[in-house]
Specification:
The structure is a homodimer of 322-residue chains.
Chain A lengths: L2 E7 L3 E8 L4 E8 L6 H19 L8 E6 L3 E2 L4 E2 L13 H8 L5 E5 H12 L8 E6 L3 E7 L2 E2 L31 H4 L1 H13 L6 H5 L7 H9 L3 H25 L3 E5 L7 H13 L3 H4 L3 E4 L6 H16 L1
Parallel strand pairs in A: 1-4, 4-7, 8-11, 11-12
Antiparallel strand pairs in A: 1-2, 2-3, 5-6, 8-9, 9-10
Helix pairs in contact in A: 1-2, 3-11, 5-8, 7-8, 8-9
Chain lengths: 322, 322
């Protein structure tokens, strides 16, 4: 079975794994990124750790068809670099593909946006398997997206397609990191839900949320869920608003892509049915009936390994094209 | 050269043409739809007129590879029907593909959403020629869209993808025909610009627009342009707002698709540079720099024949797949 050596670069962790062409993981590991120390040291350490894994598994670079790398965008795919990613300062212009290719016997290496890689991973091996049109949405620090259209990953003109967290919800809302007001992710990401909760508490709204969080600046969506379990009114109100924002964005995604399935991952999905049941209803309300009727909204299937497995799916796709 | 017999169904006109595989038109015509009299009479009359055109051109059904039909959505592509289109009452369930196929010697017939067909037409033969990722936007009564992703038309799960006019701009704006508040098209379509103009005039704002329109209910974007040419302050203000709304939506389109080019058609583009120059600037402001840097925004290349030529492009694509 063909194998890919896959990497998942993040601002905190740099994960890697040996992935079979059926999506199964033969082995994996991770190192700290220490992003602010620059790319060379992180790439050296991850390559060293991956070489140890290969030795443990009795594999050599020649046993692989390709190297796949998932990374936060924006990317310069042609040069194999990140290009101005806020969580990877000083990395712009360093060719991660070249470094890792050189470290592993000249294997062909490709880099893809991590959410796009996740979309292809979920399409090939996860919750989107068997469907042709799959949109992946992650709701966590921000909202990220990726889209597989009729069985092919949508990369766009320069590999940066599917910035779905920046679909507008308002013209004059809170400022987004992208510089615009009112993007979807400033209302409905995990960070945004926590921020809106803190704002409501700071405005003096009574609630048990603070009891769980300890102090205002510690509040996360986790404490919101704890308070909801007690029937806290403010927590329920903020959650209902969040569902409405999530549904408005997902409704737009349905109208834009007419997908067979939207796969939703990220920390907020830990809420399970408390999220998915009302969110499906809200999304359907904001989409054309003929489009929402054919679109399922389901939890991600690949869990924490989505980055590594997605990177492998991208590299396998490239290897198939040859 | 392969030929397609192409039809472009609208609520008012039912156009048809003989299209070569290079996109050139050998001949064309149109009949009135009289949509409220139902589909059978309209399809009979258009088939009769198309048969006359074929006779004039010395062609028979056997000289064609396929029939292509562009129609307002939503569609039931499998059955070849419109399915609940507001401007075609009573048409739901009538198989236009079957009728026209039977009328022309059993030629294979396919139906596509008119904006999707236009996107493929502009990609193959128009302003998107030579680019791989092409989004088509029409700004007229509403805002419609279509997307060609890496050289292939995005149809979605059931042929209804790219309802781009329903990207949200606000959560609480004017009601859209789709049932939601604040969609892009309720702010920035030709109809919406005229409505916002009438609202401002009805609120008593002084302006020369009324002089050109005659009465409030006659106001269109055309009168807005006439007043702008005189330096009318209200007209300039409404136009600037419209550009801002158009830019916000186009910025979202850039962030969603990372296209090489956005081709803009529809009545509002009659404004020419007065539209395109500020609209490009506004769109760039609302999109990621790395994505807007590679995306041109250009006027449509196919003009009034975009429906017929687009329908032909869709049918040719299907014929190639065989």
């Amino acid at each position: 079975m063909r194998k890919v050596l896959a990497f998942d670069l993040g601002g905190t962790k740099f994960a890697f794994g040996v992935v079979n062409e059926d999506g199964s993981l033969l082995g994996s590991g991770r190192v700290e990124t220490f992003a602010d120390k620059g790319p060379a040291q992180a790439c050296e350490r991850v390559a060293e750790a991956a070489h140890r894994l290969l030795a443990e598994l009795g594999l050599r670079p020649v046993d692989f068809v390709a190297i796949g790398i998932a990374s936060p965008g924006p990317l310069d795919m042609a040069r194999g670099c990140v290009d101005g990613s806020p969580n990877l300062p000083g990395w712009t212009g360093f060719s991660i593909t070249e470094f890792l290719s050189n470290s592993f016997g000249g294997l062909p290496a490709r880099i893809d946006n991590d959410c796009n890689a996740a979309a292809l991973g979920e399409y090939r091996f996860g919750a989107g398997k068997g469907r042709k049109n799959v949109v992946y949405i992650t709701v966590s620090t921000g909202i990220g997206g990726g889209a597989v259209i009729d069985g092919r990953l949508m990369r766009g003109a320069n590999g940066n397609a599917a910035e779905l967290g920046h679909i507008p919800l308002t013209m004059d809302g809170p400022s987004c990191g992208c510089g615009n007001p009112g993007c979807w992710e400033v209302y409905a990401s995990g960070t945004a839900i926590a921020r809106r909760t803190r704002e409501a508490l700071a405005a003096g709204r009574p609630s048990s949320i603070l009891k769980f969080a300890g102090s205002l600046d510690q509040v996360t969506t986790h404490h919101l869920f704890q308070a909801m379990a007690e029937g806290d009114a403010l927590a329920n109100e903020i959650w209902a608003e969040s569902i409405n924002y999530l549904g408005r964005g997902l409704g737009a995604v349905i109208n834009i892509f007419n997908p067979d399935v939207i796969v939703v991952g990220g920390g907020v999905t830990a809420a399970g049915d408390a999220l998915f049941v009302p969110m499906r209803k809200s999304a359907a309300q904001y989409a054309f009936p003929r489009l929402s009727a054919v679109c399922s909204i389901v939890p991600a299937g690949l869990g924490g390994e989505v980055g590594v497995v997605g990177a492998a799916a991208c590299a396998l796709e490239g290897a198939q094209e040859k």
